[in-house]
Amino acid sequence: MQIYNTLSRRKEDLIPSRDKEVRMYVCGPNLYGPCHVGHAMSYIVFDVLRRYLEYRGYTVQHVQNFTDIEDRIIETAQALGISVNELAQRYIDRFFAEMDALDVKRAHHHPRATEVIDKMIEIIQGLIVKGHAYVVDGDVYFRVTSDPDYGKLSGRTLEEMQAGARIEVDPRKEHPMDFALWKVAKPGEPSWDSPWGQGRPGWHIECSAMAMKFLGEQIDIHGGGQDVLFPHHENEIAQSESYTGRVPFAKYWVHNGLLRPSEEEEEKMTRHLANFVSIQEALERYSPDGIRLFLLSSHYRSSLTWSEEGVLAAERGGERLRAALRPPYEKDGQASPELAQKVEETRQAFQETMDDDLNTAQALATLFDLARAINQARDEGRGGETFFAAQEALKELAGVLGLKLEAEAKGVAITPFIDLLVSVRDKLRAAKLYPLSDKIREELSELGVILEDGPGGTTWRWG
């Protein structure tokens, strides 16, 4: 399998440090508000990566964090008149409910930042001893000039970073790009004891500490959205490798593209701009399979625009896959060697496309090809073991993409409704009420349903 490594800017063979065990850390949500479908895009991408690695025989150790102490969390909790912990727990509970609904596998560990304060202090102390960090009035900053590789992930020099950054001038810093590892707590804020006084961690140190505590000083895959590549992941590399003595922190840095709220908006979907569709809203309108199909229909590194038309088209696609799982017309019909061959071809094509940097769009295309072959075999009266084996293969490969193919889609025609309309149309034709029967055919055709009249009655399939 090859995966695109942001650090090397090319696709690389995926070779874990520990034989067939992959240690993967994925940046999780900041718990100051509800997650939106842009978050879902990232979590679904890495869920599929994990599922595919497991399908290919790897053991995956998956860690995804919760950021439960940060400026916006503190501000939001104070505005609502509740504790930071109460706010964080509210959104943790909602996160798990929404991820379960989307069939995103839970990570093996979901640590909260506040649970690993001791590890953060240990790393910060090590950085100070090695000359990579310094203390100013109880705050601790990372010294970017001490790291000759600083900027290697984003490919920027310090001068370019400084020119493009919106940073407050702080005369206490040795360099404007030095970033906080530990902050003196303000009155009323949560705080912890440290060698530098009462305070709380900076954002970047949290992920380094959680990754090291649960996965060790070197991990295989570090994932997240392209929006956290800089400065978050850049700073993670710098502080982690400076602390461990240049041991590569992560072998592969994997970043998914961003989701825009509409064609008219250039900005990504984000909570602080209030231009988002929450996961809760999406689940109220669309099925989990429909949402997944939409988000997986383009390459994970590409940007995508959320649209009702696009998700409804994905819903119809999901219904086409579900339609292929209907029983055959003849349970013990003639076997189909062609269908058996199609299954083998589909498995091979599916693996080839997924091995090529997790190309889910092409992988989905192989599933739709198999679904068409299954429908054709049904229409030809084929059944038996090869037919059922093809359906099982379709369900198995769809499951690698996290598709259940069980619940009916929302907002589009569903199988029982189509079957009923076909039955009504047959009765209208028998009564020679052809204008009404033609109207049903036309309406179904607009939904992508193709009716085929034959000696044995009318069958339907997705076009």
Note down, in words, how this protein is organized.
- The protein is α/β, with parallel strands linked by helices and 463 residues long.
- It folds into 3 domains: 2-260, Rossmann fold; 319-400, Anticodon-binding domain of a subclass of class I aminoacyl-tRNA synthetases (Four Helix Bundle (Hemerythrin (Met), subunit A), Up-down Bundle), CATH 1.20.120; 415-462, no CATH class.
- Helix content is 46%, strand content 14%.
- The chain contains 15 helices and 14 strands.
- It has a 4-stranded parallel sheet with strand order 4-3-9-10, sandwiched between helices.
- Helix 6 (203-215) packs across helix 7 (229-244), helix 10 crosses helix 12 and helix 11 packs parallel to helix 13.
- It is elongated, with a radius of gyration of 26 Å.
Mean pLDDT, to the nearest integer, reads 91
Cα end-to-end separation: 33 Å
By CATH reckoning, the class of the largest domain would read Alpha Beta
Q: What would you give as the CATH superfamily of the largest domain?
A: HUPs
Low-confidence residue ranges: none
Number of helices: 15
- The coarse silhouette is elongated
Overall radius of gyration? 26 Å
Helices and strands: which structural class? alpha/beta
Helix content: 40-55%
Q: Tell how many strands the DSSP assignment holds.
A: 14
**Largest sheet properties:** 4 strands, parallel
- The CATH architecture category of the largest domain equals 3-Layer(aba) Sandwich
Under CATH, the topology of the largest domain is which? Rossmann fold
Q: What's the number of domains?
A: 3
Strand content: 5-15%
Order of helices and strands: EEEHEHHHEEHEEHEHEEHHEHHHHHHEE
- Placed side by side, the strands forming the largest sheet appear as 4-3-9-10
